[in-house]
Amino acid sequence: MDSYHWYLQLKKPRWAPPASLFGPVWSVLYLIIFVSFGFVFFNAATSTIPWVVAVPFALNLVLNFSFTYFQFGLKNNRLASVDILLVLITLIWALIAIWPYLSWVSFINLPYLAWVLFATALQLTITYLNRPHSPV
User: Fold this and answer.
1) pTM over 0.90
2) 108 phi and psi, to 5 degrees?
3) Domain coordinates of the chain in residue numbers?
């Protein structure tokens, strides 16, 4: 079974959005991420800000892209849950770290933060609803 159909077969909460919503939302968010994270990396590379400020941004990107592999490649809800929690943690860390230098980066990423909060709640709920049941 391909990953799209596998995902459709999972039990989801009533408040889960339709699968067709994820593409448009992520398209907008990836544009925000590309511009703002790119600006952070440029400023770190040119020593305008300390390079250590860019670390949580880099980690966030790696973890963000890893989620798709864990969820749809491996079809592993537990790994995807751990990953999305780490995405949330690194995003909060990144927005706090950049605030003293480029506060607009924190502001422009508020939609990303809101979506990651929602996605975290959704993923944790899906993982719970689809947990393996122990034989009694």
Assistant:
1) yes
2) -65, -20
3) 23-129
